[in-house]
Amino acid sequence: MRNGGIGFIVAIAVLLSAPAGAASKSSDFDFADGVWKTHIRRTLHPFDAGSEVVELTGTKSMRRVWDGAHVEEIQADGPSGRWQGLTLFLFDPQTKQWTQTFASSKSAMLTASAAGGFKDGQGELYSTDTFEGRSILVRSLWSGIQPDSHRYEESYSDDGGRTWHVAFQATLTRSTEPPLTAPPAPKAARAFDFENARWKTRISRLMQPLSGKKDWAQYDATTDIQPIWGGQGNIVHIVGDGPRGHLELMGIRLFQPSSGQWHLWFAHTQGGLALPPLVGEVKGGQAALYDQEELEGRPVWVRISVKATGPDTVLSEQAFSADHGKTWETNFISRQTRAAAD
Length: 342
Fold this sequence. Notes:
single chain; mainly beta
């Protein structure tokens, strides 16, 4: 679990020592797109010089979603079996900084983001975390970047960044073979399989929710949905245009085995990841996920529902409630029709 307990001032000091943001650009992680063979060394107790080291081998596949957004899936085998990971990289065009957000298939929860940038041919991102009850700093480092190889290293510090202890090392070489096939997810985690496809989408968006105004904007869009972790999650990419301009966003849906619930996060082209996620379940063929947010300074409940309305059609809606669920106002409607195969 990410934790800010190490202290805001110390964390900021370490971040300020990261590569200057002005050197970073939205194409920095393009080098990592594609399929890579990876050899991983995980140090189980990084602060112990005699710690056991676990080795894993597998593949990492990474793709660009838009300029400044990449999704990475890791499939690796080790002594305890298959390890699956998901990493989201987002570039903020205003701060010129990158964020790195990770989830494992076991937790299925995106952690708080590391932040930083690139300089002199390598990337450095920093975050806070806890390890065995202690607050630590975490440094993520990409180095040795060549067209067909690079290294990734994650190190921990419990003394404000004065010393660093390696916790995770990965050596990567580009592969011309497909990535490792993910083991099939359990049936309970396959509730969104029907939506894994490319869709023509008509979007209606209420511009000023809960204002009493009925000013709707229309968009013609494409929705592309791809599974991860053998169906335990999926990545939703929506791109649309209309009289009100361009619309582009990404949804990350992950099924958490321990709770039996789905979690949904949204990211947008301005580099942001919305936290906390919406959480919910799929019952009777319909998904309903909820959270609480602020709208113009007041708390509102948010509900997103998804259901198949036919073999080749899907309806998704977002609604807000300002009275704790007594009444709901729909403000986003997405009508999807399966696109013809290329």
